[in-house]
């Protein structure tokens, strides 16, 4: 019987965007180091041993550049699964340096699968209706590529759970829809608590912004929180909040707003009244950079 895994508490159990249950350990410890595997052959033996021991396996994919949000997903995966694999491509090479390896180990990773080339996506002929709007309309190729890469990793690792940030909720819905009914398909776990200070969704692109750009990203979080809060309280309607939100986003200085919508968390159908399960979805642009986010209306840490 595998022993449950524990991760150390950093003592940073603050209120707000951080879920106290997802305590991160950002302190260094040179004695801890995650195992790094760069080819599929190196995964076969540990996976076989874990399965023989009856261990559950969690997968935290890092499709682009690594950021602190991935550590938040890792912390939850380590709490819920006996063993955890972080899978990354060459753009996340920071994970293979001493600091990256230490952070992965201290937050519960057993293996870093550091692919030397980009993860090849499974060819996808068509996407479900869930993909027609929002990202499917404004960045369909990126959505298709991401879902294909996730399916490729699932086929290679066969995890019991796969962890995704609530910011990419639509991607998680599309993936779950495609996996539905497949034998051995993992649970797609959406984590809304994977946020940084000020409620910002951690993304590597923030580091490329100047101070004014970063303030716009902070304002994006405030706008989404206000919309979700007023809808949850029943004091406004989706149409009213979207109108207010578009004005607020334009006033904040975003170069473009691809969409701002309130949709049902399971069907992604448009929601036209308060009092029903909903999420707020947004995509904005600052110069050539694009920021996508989503927050639940009912609860800031609800995994809907």
Structure description:
There is one protein chain. With 304 residues, the chain is of the alpha/beta class. It folds into two domains: 35-191, HUPs (Rossmann fold, 3-Layer(aba) Sandwich), CATH 3.40.50.620; 203-296, Pantoate--beta-alanine Ligase, Chain: A,domain 2, CATH 3.30.1300. The protein has helices at residues 41-52, 68-80, 98-106, 135-138, 140-157, 169-179, 211-233, 238-252, and strands at residues 35-37, 57-62, 83-88, 111-114, 161-165, 187-191, 256-263, 279-286, 289-296. Strands 1-4-3-2-5-6 form a six-stranded parallel sheet, with helices on both faces. A hairpin with a 2-residue loop joins β8 (279-286) and β9 (289-296). It is globular and about 55 Å long. It starts with 34 loop residues before the first strand and ends in an 8-residue tail after the last strand. 40% of the residues are buried. Mean pLDDT is 86; it is low at 6-22 and 299-304.
* Global morphology: globular
Proportion of beta-strand residues: 15-25%
> In whole angstroms, how far apart are the ends?
31 Å
User: What is the assembly state of the chains in this entry?
Assistant: single chain
Let me know the average pLDDT: 86
Radius of gyration computed on alpha carbons: 19 Å
Instruction: List the total number of helices.
Output: 8
Q: Strands of the largest sheet, in order across it?
A: 1-4-3-2-5-6
